[in-house]
Amino acid sequence: MYRICFRGIFTLVTVLLLGHVTAFADPDGKALFMSNCASCHNPLKDATGPALQNIDKSFPDKEWGYNWVHNSAKVIASGDKTANDIYNKFNKTAMTAFPQLSNAEIDAILNYVDNVKAPPPPDNGKQVPSGEQPAETNGWLYTIITLSLLVLVVILWRANQGLKRAANDVEGTPNEKEIPLYRSKFVIAFVSIILFIMAGYWLVNGAVNEGRQQNYQPLQPVFYSHKVHAGVNQINCLYCHAGAEKSRQAMIPSTNICMNCHKQINSYTGDPLKTAEGKEVNANEQIQNLYKYAGWDPVKKDYNRDAAGNILATPIQWVKIHNLPDHVYFNHSQHVKVGQVQCQRCHGPIQEMDEVYQFAPLSMGWCINCHRQTEVQFTNNKYYDIFEKYHDEIKEGKRTGVTEAEMGGTECQKCHY
Ligand code: HEC
Ligand code: HEC
Ligand code: HEC
Ligand code: HEC
Ligand code: HEC
Ligand code: HEC
């Protein structure tokens, strides 16, 4: 009896586990889209490139789509009409080549964008990134299925026992004494193991996430909108975060940099602004707020000074959003200047945020995943001249590029000291 039951439960658990594992092993279309395509494509509307939802329906054939994503320049150069039409429509903007993506990964991306739903109207408070919800309902679905299957197992077991008893009665063999379910050694062992696994999972998960703060969006002392500046008015990120190209830190601009423009721009004429909670923002008041910090008198059109002629300014105490632990070494210039990685791949669509929030988890897995997926600027780069083996392989056509992981981007000491 126990044997049958064990076998049943064993098969059940195996099936459930396998279900989970295969679900994880499939390429994650959303993650791939966010890290590779989101800087230029929005699923629902045109951006630098076209809206990608249902774009696969417009491909001449599936292979065309793979070729395009692997290297669009090659498809355009081949004189393909579809390719040249779309290229001209988007003002001959070059799309990055992604030779490292497998066909399955491209399918996963296209599948993800096809299923993105339009977000609810923004005044429902903070926007939830679409695509987040299905994952959650999935989790619930699994729990419900698991629970109902467990109930089913118990019912079947009881029925089986009943039948065995009936059979014994007919055959005249004496019945074993019935043990109540809660005292059965097997049930106790099974429940303890499940509880042990769940507690372990919860503990480890909690410990690993300690100090992480994805989606953190603090209130800032001045309501300064990246959407207004970097989005609508197209001010270059490096104008304010010059350090990102030159140093480890991207740096937050001083009020002097704000005043380069705001000595003249003393009122706001753009679309009305709202906080993440949906409260109206008086943008003109916010500019006056900036003047107070900068020590600028908008009537006199000059700075307020003390007797010695020093400007009476106080620095704005911006709340820091991104915080890596001290044991991690991260360098902006290595990524922005040398690696040519776009800000948005790590910080998300900053140019659409009124208030900045932390887009990426900043976990070790996040750094390493990208190092595995992203190619370095390998050719025409003196720094990489010594890697003759890879250069030869590229020449022989054995490979098209070299990922950061192959350059040692997963070695502990590169990121930890
Ligand atoms: C650097 C910006 C950029 C990135 C990154 C980018 N694209 Fe594009 N994409 C474009 C532009 C611009 C076009 C329009 C054609 C052109 O000008 O080359 C385009 C066109 C396309 C098309 C062709 C659309 C059609 O009408 O047939 C597809 C498909 C596509 N992109 C998919 C992707 C996928 C998938 C990714 C991520 C793996 C990606 N793109 C990343 C800029 C980009
Ligand atoms: C006109 C100046 C200006 C421009 C242009 C600008 N920023 Fe900022 N940025 C700021 C200021 C001021 C803050 C601090 C206040 C805040 O977090 O909103 C900031 C904060 C940030 C942060 C969060 C820093 C933290 O505390 O962890 C990121 C990330 C960021 N900017 C990225 C960008 C990117 C990417 C662009 C270009 C698309 C950009 N910024 C353009 C001024 C600017
Ligand atoms: C390169 C020019 C430039 C710089 C530098 C600049 N701004 Fe602006 N700012 C603008 C423009 C343009 C507008 C929009 C004016 C309009 O639409 O009428 C604006 C609007 C604003 C507004 C009202 C809208 C909003 O975002 O709430 C505030 C507040 C503001 N800026 C604060 C700042 C602060 C703080 C800094 C420094 C970190 C800064 N600005 C740096 C050009 C600049
Ligand atoms: C490869 C990922 C990556 C790229 C690309 C990237 N950042 Fe960052 N950024 C980070 C991480 C990680 C932090 C947190 C650093 C820390 O806490 O030490 C950060 C922090 C910041 C901060 C907070 C202040 C600071 O220097 O710590 C600003 C501002 C910022 N980034 C702006 C930018 C801008 C602008 C660009 C593009 C020019 C950019 N970042 C490109 C990953 C990236
Ligand atoms: C969006 C992709 C991306 C993410 C996310 C990313 N990196 Fe990188 N990283 C790169 C690329 C590309 C390079 C190669 C730059 C070059 O050519 O030297 C690189 C290089 C490095 C290097 C230099 C390695 C060497 O060989 O010298 C370090 C250190 C590093 N990254 C640390 C980090 C840390 C820490 C994080 C997470 C906080 C991170 N990176 C997240 C893309 C990324
Ligand atoms: C590409 C950069 C990178 C590499 C390579 C890397 N780490 Fe990390 N590591 C990180 C980051 C970022 C964190 C911080 C994660 C957080 O705050 O949750 C971290 C955190 C940790 C932690 C603290 C536990 C935790 O999850 O927060 C340990 C332990 C650790 N790393 C060990 C290692 C070992 C061992 C290796 C080599 C096999 C390694 N790391 C390679 C970036 C890296």
Explain what this protein looks like in three dimensions.
The longest helix has 40 residues, at 132-171. It is extended and about 110 Å long. It has 19 helices and four strands. Among the domains are: 25-114, Cytochrome Bc1 Complex, Chain D, domain 2 (Orthogonal Bundle); 226-328, no CATH class; 336-415, no CATH class. It has 417 residues and is mainly alpha-helical. It starts with a helix and ends with a helix. Strands 1-2 form a two-stranded antiparallel sheet. A two-stranded antiparallel sheet has the order 3-4. One heme C binds at residues 35, 324, 328-330, 334-335, 338-339, 341, 345-346, 362, 366-367, 370-371, 374, 376-377, 404, 407-409, 414-415.
List the helices and strands and how they pair.
Elements: H1 2-25, H2 29-37, H3 62-70, H4 72-77, H5 81-89, H6 103-114, H7 132-171, H8 185-209, H9 226-232, H10 237-240, H11 243-246, H12 255-262, E1 273-274, E2 280-281, H13 283-294, E3 296-297, E4 302-303, H14 332-338, H15 343-347, H16 364-373, H17 388-395, H18 405-409, H19 412-415
Helix pairs in contact: 1-7, 2-6, 12-13
The chain binds heme C (6 copies).
Observed structural traits:
417 residues, Cytochrome Bc1 Complex, Chain D, domain 2, two-stranded antiparallel sheet, 50% helix, binds heme C
Put the structure in a nutshell.
It contains 19 helices and four strands.
Rg, rounded, reads: 29 Å
Mean pLDDT: 84
Low-confidence stretches: 13-24, 122-135
Largest sheet descriptor: 2 strands, antiparallel
